[in-house]
Amino acid sequence: MIPSFRKMLIGTIENPDGAAPMNTLLTVGDVNGDGLPDIVVSGRNGALVWFENPGDDRPWKRHHVDYVHNQECGGILADLTGNGIPDLINGGDSSSDELSWWENPGIPGALWDRRIIVKTGKRQFHDVAIGDVTGDGVRSLVFWNQGGGTLYRVPLPADPRVSPWPGVEGIAEGMFENGQPEEGLALADLDGDGQTEIVAGTHWYKFSQGAWQRHRYAAGYIATLVAAGDIDGDGLLEIVVTEGDACIYGKPQGGKFSWFRRRSDIRDLWEEHVVEDYLLDPHSLQLGDVCGHGRLDILVGEIGVRERYSEAPPRLMLFENMGNGRFTRHIIDEGTGTHHARLVDLFGRGKLDIVSRPLHGADKWNVYAWVQE
Predict the structure, then answer these.
(1) Which residue, among 186, 191, 178, has the nearest Cα to 203 in the 3D structure?
(2) Do residues 99 and 92 lie in contact, with contact meaning Cβ atoms separated by under 8 Å?
(3) Taking 90 as the threshold, does the pLDDT of residue 307 lie above it?
(4) What is the mean pLDDT of the chain?
(5) Which pLDDT belongs to residue 188?
(6) Element (H, E) at 274
(7) What is the DSSP string of 200-226?
(8) Is a pLDDT exceeding 80 seen at residue 200?
(9) 272 phi, psi to nearest 5 deg
(10) pTM of the model
(11) H/E element holding 51?
(12) C-alpha atoms less than 13 angstroms from C-alpha of 264 in its C-beta half-sphere
């Protein structure tokens, strides 16, 4: 049975500066080490802030991190310095060729120092992830640089304050699907051999015998978000995909939400299962047991189309996993678009809540939580 949710305003952060003004980055993590997840939000240009989780219904306090320029979405929080608190990694937009990190000083209210990880000479980044993808026990930062359609990885250096980071490696170049640069990133052991593979766009990548092997699992999907998990209960990992910016990049009718099951030869195209089509830029995709039945449910949220916002209000949807690859759609919210929504247990109750914010509409500067009742 699907739980009920209460919509709560976390805070507001207005960033009207520059071209295409919007809040691009949203990610979650325990910024101050108190055991509760906080929320980090940045404008494309303007303020980069974090909202401090009070642990209850008290107001969330906003802390200023930096004043930024040309920031894209897809960043993460990760402890790079080993002090037990997470730092921030995020890349630039179509006006920037820089991937950067901000060092968390561990002092609420203090500014964070920004350092450049890499300047690639190609603009626009989208999605970063950290994991041991080479099987040597060394963690790497994996990221998309869309200007060249390039998937990169770089080992985490012993001293992350060195700039740029040494050892940047191109895994794949010229990765475009139907003319659009690929995006979407997840790390998972797809073949069950104990080594982590990279799911990136419509392909997956494996490091073997000193070289990268690329395998296509899907075709024709653009501007993707991807996730991996056992959603049909067969003990194997499936890949879940939404076309997050379909309406923006060539599919005005909307994009697909599908899952893919591996075939007997995992290197072949995977078996496609379309759950929904004609979604209005479903740029939120998360897996988690929201309903508490021991199966992975799927959260999907639409950005919505700015010119059709009132006539076709964007939806935040939970697809309840009924078992054996079957899903039932439930609408959690209609009228507030979401972008990079996150499933997270905000208050340590063992229940998954939702955090996000819209890109368009009258409330585009607001940050919201949908809290399980």
Answers:
(1) 186
(2) yes
(3) no
(4) 97
(5) 99
(6) strand 271-279
(7) ETTEEEEEETTEEEEEE---S--SEEE
(8) yes
(9) -90, 135
(10) 0.97
(11) strand 46-52
(12) 0
